[in-house]
Amino acid sequence: MPLAGQVVGNGVRLVRPVGRGSHSLVYFAVDRGGQPCAVKIFPAHLEGYADREYQHGHALEHPRLVRVMARATVDEQPALISTLARGEVLFQRYAQRPAVSTERRPFLLTMVHLLDALGYLHALGLVHRDIKPENVMVEDDGSAKLVDYDLSGPAFETFSTPLRMGTAAFQSPEAARGEALGPESDLYGVGILLGWGIHGALPDPEEPYPLSADPLGALHLALTSADRHARPNDAARVRQELLRLASLPY
């Protein structure tokens, strides 16, 4: 049975699919008052992911984060109703590369907004654990929101079995080892995105990035340090440094 047109929760009508999360299908929807929202539908066997995302996302109140408003069910599948993040995922929005050269001001605004979102999360004692282009929705002017909290949880949370959380290309070394993750682990993902913006490609272990004249290169190197203890762990300070370096001539 097609899902479009179905009404879920308190009068929210599904309109059309608009994307996929790491474990879900996302629909554009409208509430009973005609206001746009999003409905994220999980496979039945991933109910735990939906519950976890609701737990960590329903109390968030920040302009650079989507807020999970309600837990629902669609065709016996767990679902979440959230505020809508407009725009395109980061890599689609900055199709002309490198973004720092082709659209410097919008791209740096995107990075600032991402750091704003992380600063708020980290102040609450939470880490996102999956910073990647698909989880950063970007509008035409570079304004951005961070989405998808199904891997999020308390900083330095431990599990009975080590879990390698995140997406390989953006995963910190400690995440790849299955260690408990802190703010510096999220900021490693920011560093990978910043390096992509500077160089126009993701890093290749066999072919290091060439030296860059851009002053942002120093921040990229600091954020992607393999040693988590040498890496910045304060999103607000990284934001300040990003803005300071961005104003330097090169």
Verbal overview:
The strands form three sheets. Strands 1-2-3-4-6-5 form a six-stranded antiparallel β-sheet, with helices on one face. The mean pLDDT is 93. It folds into two domains: 7-82, 2-Layer Sandwich (Phosphorylase Kinase, domain 1); 88-246, Orthogonal Bundle (Transferase(Phosphotransferase), domain 1). Helix 4 (104-123) runs antiparallel to helix 6 (183-199), helix 4 runs antiparallel to helix 8 (235-246) and helix 6 (183-199) crosses helix 7 (216-223). The protein is α+β, with helices and mostly antiparallel strands. It is 32% helix and 19% strand. The termini are far apart. Keywords: ATP-binding, Kinase, Nucleotide-binding, Transferase.
